[in-house]
Amino acid sequence: MISISQYNLDKIEALVENIGYKIRYEKGNFRTGACVLQHTKVIVVNKFSTLEIKINSLIQLIREFEINIKDLDEKQGQFYKSLLKEER
Question: What's the pTM?
Answer without folding.
Answer: 0.84
